[in-house]
Design a protein that fits this description.
By secondary structure, the protein is mainly beta. The chain has 4 helices and 20 strands. A hairpin with a 2-residue loop joins strand 3 (24-39) and strand 4.
Length: 294
Amino acid sequence: MGKDKSAEPLDVEVDELALSLVGWQVDEVQARLVTKTYGKKDHRQEVVVSGTVRFLPEDRSDKFTDSNYAPPPLLVFSRKGSSTPPTYERALFETEKKARKRPLRFSETSRRWECSEPLSPADLHLRLTAFDISEVDSNFELPTGEGAEVEVNVIDDTTRAGVRARVSNVAAQIVPESYSKTLRVHMEGVFEFGTAQQLLDDYVADDDWRNETPTLEGECPFEVGVPEIEVEVLDGEGFLIATSGFQPYAHIRVQKGGKLPGRPPRWVAQDNLDVEDMSGKPTRVVVRIVDADE
């Protein structure tokens, strides 16, 4: 049987502020929803995105890592009206040295999905954004329409006041895959920091060799690591059946004179854990915030 092919424009929401904070300017970006029809109830669909961006390091407000790579622009793909966490794809991943030389073009194609009733562009949401720190374990694919919600508890076990992780969005769901089920844990937020003196107190907290009281004048410049995040998966009896984690490898720099960054760093993390590898059924997820291991 032959096939009919169509391509419909799909709007892309460009998060200009988030992109500009880490140095990206979007010249243009377009997307299409491509549908191939093999029969009345037999369709294949995919999303194709292309665009052009520029990296302008002079526009980057603050830097929170030592990486030589520019924070990647991220494609965020979701269904409208669904509570299922989105999927992510790096549009680009380039060194700052290369990215600053010229405009960069990108093209990404989602994984193809099968359906009996094709989706329309009005059913989908595609966004281009960026974070200071990102660790996303997912593919550019259509999120499932429904997922089984799993209870999530956020526990702050940090002992220091200089830098805190504020979680603004967290969710855990069991989502069906082709041949298995996946526990998808999604988290995002900011790392808030206190005064220069609070950061100094954290910086010297483990230094038992000092004979004199440290001062900002004597210690600047210095940096303090942001907290780490541990993920624990429990079954109905409270038995630990899986663990994961997010190590940002980021820090808050205090410059000479006690000068602080102009804003807190934004972060996103997403992990996918194979339910079939667990010894029980996931019923609760604990997101535990702990001090940086420095």
